[in-house]
Task: structure prediction
Amino acid sequence: MLRIEIDGGEPTTDQLAVGLLANYGHFTAMQVRDRRVQGLDLHLRRLDAQHRELYGEGLPGDRVRALIARALGEVRDAAVRVIAFGPEAPKLMVVVRPPAGPSDRPQRLISVDYQRHLPHVKHIGGFGQLLHGNRAKAAGYDDALLTTPDGVVIEGAIANIAFFDHDGGIVWPEADWLHGIAMQLLERELPSRRAVVRRADLPLYRGAFLSNSIGVTAVSGIDDLAYPVDETAIDRVRGALAAVPWDALDE
Result:
């Protein structure tokens, strides 16, 4: 299943060409279940803030909801991406694909020196992240962990990362990252703190996990460091995210 609409209609070749060639815009990605979305207010707020920064005007949430509902049609469960694109007079694209869930297999990460430009914006054109992700896989890892040149941990290539300290607490790296929707929801649901985490500090933690719109995935290692997977701790995080209410798109 793949559906694409632009401004509520079937996309034209010219419209798609703008998106492909301009490489300028922003987006949000969400999972839809029974035509409901967790943290819908946060997705709409993200789109509005990013639109103001990139285009100098807001993006009404009611319009976004209507476009998502239209693109879904009769589909009730899906993975949805809302993309504002174009150098000027931006168009809104809604992409509907089959629903997705997190991997049950713990992930091994390799740290790389890379920082996204405008990290607080979920912008299109993630060449650097894809490049490092592909290189990580070629080296036998599952994905990349982005760090600064002096070794400060930032985020995963397409997810936030958090660590378990030895008291069982959750520590989110303090860095210039994208404040992910799943991260925001988990911060609401579970006690946590933020702290600067350096590569040299990684052995001080007893585990880690990744979070994004697809869900929560355990981390089994970073570089040459192995983390034991604490299923009880991971289940607690997954349970907290699962308990977040799902907001109706059609209201």
In short: The CA atoms of residues 15 and 221 lie 43 Å apart. The domain at 3-97 is CATH 3.30.470.10 (D-amino Acid Aminotransferase; Chain A, domain 1).
